[in-house]
Amino acid sequence: MASALLLSRQGHRVTLLERFASPQAVGAGILLQPSGMWVLQQLGVLQDVALRASRIHALHGVTGQRRVLDLKYSDYHDQAFGLGVHRGALFDALFKATSAASINIEAGSEVESIDPDGTITVAGKCRAFDLVIVASGAHTRLGRHLGLEISEAEYPWGAVWSVLPGESIEPGVLSQAYDGARKMAGLLPSGRDPNSGHTCTSFFYSVRCDQRQAFSKQPISRFQDQALALWPQAEPWLGRIESHDQFTFASYRDTIMSHWHSGRVVVIGDAAHAMSPQLGQGTNLALVDALELSSVLEQSRRSIPALLAQYSARRRSHIRFYQAASRILTPFYQSDSWWAGALRDWTTPIGSRVAPFNRQSLATLVGFKTGIFSSLLNKSEREQLFASIEDSLEQAPSA
Predict the structure, then answer these.
(1) Where are the alpha helices (DSSP H) in the chain?
(2) What angle do CA 146, 150, 154 make, to 5 degrees?
(3) What pairing do the DSSP bridges indicate for beta strands 173-179 and 183-192?
């Protein structure tokens, strides 16, 4: 929807093909970083999203009674923060804007195949487009039709999610608890539930993919006992989980492409670069993809294939940095390694107290890094962004 909006505003005739008959969001809370807010601001929907979100000022992680993760956005910039938001609230804001624009939305239209020349097949019929954008998520197979070099790897660990009513343990904080790398639970303040309108919190709990069935068959009281032993402070929220039906299981994968275009077709978002959620960058990277793609396509004097090649080159360093960082970080939070959790618990507190390391962690978190010492936006541009985000939200009507 972000891509459709941006290209429609440039004057392109846009058709959005959605495989579900009734478009809707699926999932729980997500953490919008300043990089994602940068795009939402340019789309004109940031105020709408922020009114239904929770401001996140810090990330905390504990092992027993010991805090091992302590990241504060203010240590990066005094106006920096994240937004914890229900995925449905973000969907609603974008869908409202898309429906109001001159965009042809065709629901119940599942794309069966794509040719690099821009021809797609829907319900057995071929249709030709000047440009095709594949934005169909981490589990799509459409990229396989394009002859792109694609490497995919499933992670052995996933998580169950549930959206619970009420505030989190620490308002304004993404809170987590660990026991080694095999056990992890977390609570993300997620603003207002789009269905009830009430304050909500997203709860997540690590589960090995091959143990999913066993987990779903165990009594819910056993899960509650295990989670309570891991995180006693979460008892009020654990008591709100009364059935496995309240859980949604999420599995994760790495998707790596040598480049993200073929002819007149480009792949963006999780379809192009799915990764573990440990850095919380999936939605943010997808939004930046949409903005960067629209920026490249403004140069209409060049051919579509040439512009898409320019897009791939332009996105390479940003995407590659976060893919690598995610792969490195994931085993320290979700794996069977006995030493990974211990090493994380020993090194992370030290890193948070050493200013250069802490700043690098925060710079990675906010979503703009393209390398160890490089960024998508320079310092002046980031300063302007933080100030403009704060100004725009201060002007928003109260919730």
Answers:
(1) 2-9, 34-43, 46-51, 87-100, 212-217, 220-230, 235-238, 270-273, 282-297, 304-329, 338-353, 355-366, 379-394
(2) 130
(3) antiparallel
- Residue 227 contacts residue 112 (beta carbons within 8 Å): no
- The whole-angstrom distance between residue 76's C-alpha and the CA centroid of its chain comes to 21
R_g (Cα) of the chain, nearest Å? 21
In the three-class reduction of DSSP (H, G, I as helix; E, B as strand; rest coil), residue 277 is classed as helix
Question: pLDDT tens for residues 357-396?
Answer: 999 999 999 999 999 999 999 999 999 999 999 888 877 5
**227 and 238 in contact (C-beta within 8 Å)?**
yes
pTM score > 0.85 for this model?
A: yes
d(CA 245, CA 334): 24
Query: SS3 of 384, please?
Result: helix
273 vs 283: CA distance, rounded Å:
11
Cβ of 229: how many Cβ atoms within 10 Å? 10
CB 261 within 8 A of CB 312: yes
Cβ atoms of 227 and 234 within 8 Å: the answer is yes
10 Å CB burial of residue 114 (0-12, 13-18, 19+) is: buried
CA distances from 154 to 151, 158, 221, 326 (A): 10, 10, 30, 14
The Cα–Cα gap between 243 and 216 comes to 9
Instruction: Please give the order of strands across the beta sheet that includes 132-134.
Output: 132-134, 265-267, 261-262
- What is residue 81's predicted lDDT score, i.e. its pLDDT? 97
Q: At residue 120, what is the residue type?
A: I
Distance between CA atoms of residues 109 and 209, nearest Å = 30
* Domains of the chain by start residue, with CATH: 2-55+83-152+253-336+388-394 (3.50.50.60)
Q: Looking at the chain, how many residues does it have?
A: 399
**Residue at token pair 């065709």:** 106
